[in-house]
Amino acid sequence: MGSIAVAVALCASAGPAAAEPAVLLASRWPSVPADRGLSLEDQITEHLTQLGNELCHHLDLLSHDMFQLRVDGFRRRAHVRLGGGNAEMVSVRLDGDIQFEDINARIHTRIDLALHGHAMHLELPTFEMSPAEYRGDRGVELRVPLFEQKF
User: Fold this and answer.
1) What is d(CA 73, CA 120) in angstroms, rounded to the nearest whole number?
2) Distance of CA 78 to CAs 43, 100, 150, Å?
3) Per-residue pLDDT tens for 89-124?
4) Statement: the pTM of the whole predicted model exceeds 0.85
5) Are the CB atoms for 46 and 38 separated by under 8 Å?
6) Which helix (H) or strand (E) holds 83?
7) Are 107 and 96 in contact (CB under 8 A)?
8) Which among 72, 68, 102 has a CA at the least distance from the CA of 82?
């Protein structure tokens, strides 16, 4: 009967001892906090946008303000400006906003011309560019609207 009492005492004392290391482990190693940062895709987009805009800044400096490009990777937009000059003599500027949708690009373009103090501003219709292929040759298809109707 004495050996049964010793076995019961050992079993009773083994229960709390087994649970104790788990409690100690949980207090020493808390769980990993939930990640509330940007997803990997958004991190890559942010880094590429920053790199693109840094490159565009250098191109702007190298071209003496004749070429500007700004890129927004999150909204899939870009802004391009070409040209320059003096409005009192001759000035030509091409300004465009580009919105990328899937593989197509919608482009809204403006042209500013100035000659001896007389200025002209042209708004071109928004057109689309998409990749095209004809008999194995790659190219670009321009879709210019002749008539546009909005509802």
Assistant:
1) 32
2) 19, 8, 25
3) 889 999 999 999 888 999 999 999 998 888 999 998
4) no
5) yes
6) strand 77-85
7) yes
8) 68
